[in-house]
Design a protein that fits this description.
- With 448 residues, the protein is of the alpha/beta class.
- Helices cover 35% and strands 22% of the residues.
- The chain contains 17 helices and 20 strands.
- The protein has helices at 14-25, 40-49, 60-63, 80-87, 95-100, 116-129, 144-150, 162-166, 193-201, 220-229, 277-292, 297-306, 334-342, 365-371, 383-389, 402-412, 434-447; strands spanning 6-10, 29-34, 53-55, 68-71, 91-93, 106-111, 134-138, 155-159, 175-178, 212-216, 234-239, 247-251, 254-258, 264-268, 315-320, 323-327, 348-352, 372-378, 395-399, 418-421.
- Strand 9, helix 9 and strand 10 (212-216) form a beta-alpha-beta unit.
- It starts with 5 loop residues before the first strand and ends with a helix.
- 50% of the residues are buried.
- Residues 312-425 form the Mur ligase C-terminal domain.
């Protein structure tokens, strides 16, 4: 092929614009196409770089002449433009795959249905505090490609979703972490859990015996997937139910973390910044990464004790008249809501609902029975929530705004209770995204 190679980027969000920046820096001819509306922030960024782009359409003759296409994780493989690219034999990869070609940095890649943002942020926090030159990217924070173009990090903590993994081929994680596998996004995987599990297991593809694989020994679906794939990297399991030789385990209230015999880190779970059973798992996973990188026990302990969790994930908003208000808007699937309820120690007024991705609410039934005194639905269509819980909860109310939901929940709660926004659903029926939902809820609580 004569002249410059042409890289076309589909999707002009954080990852797309970052990929465009890196592709341009590496001398490619670049074009960006978004089928949706490009926000002003990203339009301005592309204009500043002088990169041509189109919004609200995909012009085939400008896309099907690409040498390679970098696609946003949000675009499904069934999209017509993707099918045409594949039919023409044009390589379609993720931003992560593309960016990794241009960095020698060690990558710590974290995936799982739940807990990956928290674990990525905690791992980043521990590494940064220990003095490592480390970046944070992937499904969180700034684009990986943009950082590869402009920074010189020696390590990256990457939060990786199954959608990203589907478009990663030659990429290799130096340290791979699989937290858990539970049904999520099954609409993208022909409603088959095994297809979704196979995507998650791509986190170990291309790993050698020199690399590291960290996984939860208590998660049945992970164990099934591991038995099929048989990873060859050095494996470190973590468990809260049984002792492991190397990895991490819980003994009464003490966590033990060791990646080589006779050099273990111990820590009481009451000293962890993150409370709740699921967070013991997240802390163990981060702890194993830290020990693999040979960080000092004292430094790891300190960071695991002073970490602040992310916004919209079990975030304490306020205490009003003795009632705690918690924003867990990031809980967009049933499993996340299960984790949130599992960590509650008081009676709960639960605000849930939104766009239901074929949720199975059965797994919440026991927790709802034992902890939830009322459900406040926040969504356009709440029928499935009513059907699922009408026998378990006396009060189920419909609301159509964050303000209304906060007010009604406040009236239903009494001193000592917790009002928990943990929707178990996506937010697109009433809000722009889960952040918008969480921010509106927080604003409404502060108005009470």
């Amino acid at each position: 092929m004569t002249g410059q190679s042409r890289v076309v980027i589909l999707g002009a969000g954080e990852s797309g614009v970052g990929a465009a920046k890196l592709a341009q820096a590496k001398g490619f001819e670049v074009f960006v196409s978004d089928y949706g509306v490009i926000t002003d922030k990203y339009k301005a960024a592309l204009e500043k770089l002088g990169i041509p782009f189109e919004s609200e359409k995909h012009t085939e003759e400008l896309i099907l002449n690409a040498t390679e296409v970098i696609k946003s994780p949000g675009i499904p493989p069934t999209a017509p433009i993707i099918k045409k690219l594949v039919a023409k034999g044009i390589s379609v990869v993720s931003e992560i795959e593309f960016a990794k070609r241009y960095t020698q940095a060690k990558t710590i890649c974290i995936t799982g249905s739940n807990g990956k943002s928290t674990t990525s942020l905690l791992t980043y926090h521990i590494l940064k505090n220990a003095g490592l030159n480390v970046g944070l990217a992937g499904n969180i924070g700034q684009s990986f490609a943009a950082q590869v173009a402009t920074e010189d990090y020696e390590y990256y903590v990457l939060e990786i979703s199954s959608f990203m993994l589907d478009d990663m081929f030659k990429f290799k994680a130096d340290i791979a972490v699989l937290l858990n596998i539970t049904p999520d996004h099954l609409d993208r995987y022909d409603y088959k859990l095994e297809n979704y599990a196979a995507s998650k297991m791509r986190i170990v593809q291309n790993q050698t015996a020199e690399d590291v694989f960290i996984y939860c020994a208590d998660d049945e679906e992970s164990l099934k997937a591991i038995a099929l794939i048989k990873p060859i990297a050095k494996a470190f399991p973590f468990s809260i139910t049984k002792k492991v030789e190397l990895g991490a385990y819980l003994e009464e209230t003490t966590i033990h973390i060791l990646t080589e015999p006779n050099n273990q880190l111990t820590m009481s779970i009451s000293d962890l910044a993150l409370q709740g059973k699921h967070n013991i798992y997240n802390s163990m996973a981060s702890g194993i990464v830290s020990k693999v990188l040979e960080l000092r026990n004292e430094s790891i302990r300190e960071s695991m004790g002073n970490f602040k969790n992310i916004e919209h994930r079990l975030e304490h908003v306020a205490k009003i008249s003795g009632i705690d208000f918690i924003n867990d808007s990031k809980a967009t699937n049933v499993n996340s809501t299960w984790y949130a309820l599992e960590s509650m120690t008081s009676d709960v007024v639960l605000i849930m609902g939104g766009v239901d991705k074929g949720n199975d609410y059965n797994m919440l039934k026991d927790l709802v029975k034992s902890k939830v005194k009322a459900i406040v639905c926040l969504g356009k269509d709440n029928k499935r929530i009513h059907d699922a819980f009408e026998d378990d909860v006396e009060v189920i109310v419909n609301t159509f705004s964050a303000e209304e939901a906060a007010q009604i929940a406040f009236h239903l709660a009494k001193r000592g209770d917790t009002v928990l926004l943990s929707p178990a659903c996506a937010s697109f029926d009433l809000f722009k995204n889960y952040e918008d939902r969480g921010n509106q809820f927080k604003a409404a609580v502060r108005e009470l």
